[in-house]
């Protein structure tokens, strides 16, 4: 894919592509998971289980070193 073609991809599609990459990394590491990212998913993009421990992932394909506190608060809200 050329740089020009990458620029034409919508932000929503870029997010979906990133979720698929993360799911592949996990499944390649023998971690059972599935993409759940749908409207109304409350921020949960991937659900999975490893050695009996359930986990959820909210994917953020950002190019930043720091995560804003509001994002952490949002994730904490999903957990409660």
TrEMBL record:
UniProt xrefs under Pfam families: Mrr_cat
Record SUPFAM superfamilies: Restriction endonuclease-like
Matching InterPro entries: Restrct_endonuc-II-like, Restrct_endonuc_IV_Mrr, tRNA_endonuc-like_dom_sf
One of the GO biological process terms: double-strand break repair
Gene3D superfamilies linked to this entry: 3.40.1350.10
UniProt domain Restriction endonuclease type IV Mrr: residue ranges: 14-79
MF (Gene Ontology): DNA binding; endonuclease activity
Protein name: Restriction endonuclease type IV Mrr domain-containing protein
Organism for this UniProt entry: Diversispora epigaea
């Amino acid at each position: 894919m050329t740089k020009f073609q990458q620029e034409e991809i919508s932000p929503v599609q870029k997010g979906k592509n990133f979720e698929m990459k993360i799911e592949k990394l996990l499944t390649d590491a023998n971690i059972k998971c599935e993409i759940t990212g749908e409207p109304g998913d409350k921020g949960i993009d991937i659900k999975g289980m490893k050695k009996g421990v359930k986990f959820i992932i909210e994917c953020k394909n950002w190019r930043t070193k720091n995560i804003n506190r509001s994002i952490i608060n949002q994730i904490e809200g999903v957990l409660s």
